[in-house]
Amino acid sequence: MEKEKRGWVVGITGASGSIYGIRLIEVLLAQGYPVHIVVSNAGWRVLGEELGWNAGKREQVLKEKFEGFPGKLYYHPIADIGATIASGSFQVEGMVIVPCSMGTLSSVANGSSDNLMTRAADVMLKEGRTLVLVPRETPLHAIHLENMLKLARLGVRLIPAMPAFYFHPKTIEDLIDFQVGKILDSLRIEHSLFTRWSGGQAAAKPSNGE
Length: 210
Fold this sequence. Notes:
- By secondary structure, the protein is an alpha/beta fold.
- It is 38% helix and 17% strand.
- The chain has a single domain (7-202), classed as 3-Layer(aba) Sandwich (Rossmann fold).
- The protein contains seven helices and eight strands; from the N terminus they run βαβααββααβαβαββ.
- Strands 3-2-1-4-5-6 form a six-stranded parallel β-sheet, sandwiched between helices. Strands 7-8 form a two-stranded antiparallel sheet.
- α1 (18-30) packs across α7 and α4 (102-109) packs across α6 (142-153).
- The longest helix has 15 residues, at 172-186.
- It is globular.
- 39% of the residues are buried.
């Protein structure tokens, strides 16, 4: 029997760009990874405002959105500090917070584990696991930058939401896939979501987008 893959934790905060987190979850599930989701209260509000999700029916909405994928989905309420992912003894590959608000970034940088998302991130740091943050804010002031520098020195991967245009994107989905593809590169997960640079000419993106 094939051994089940270790899962990934995906956190979604109240920063704009929740679609990045949703697309990442889709791709991970499509590749058969178990995915543990944590969404902040502000994150649910943004999902409602940007994607039209019904925050009043959270688990139902998640089930409808992600059913049918090979990977298994686990939803953890932000206040459930006793969830599996709050413990270092629970084995996962790592965690991505996408998009990551400056408030959450600050909490992670300063070890303030006051909810499940920041506790799970703290677990990644103390266990030496992969932790990726995707900040989405502009402009940035000195405190933002100092917190990012502190995290970078701890080995956290920072992948700001900065889509490229060298591959001549045609749709918003192309830009979303570029960002998610850069996250997957950092996780060492193979994909073909975006067109890679190849000797001064971008190769064609596969028609299936996966």
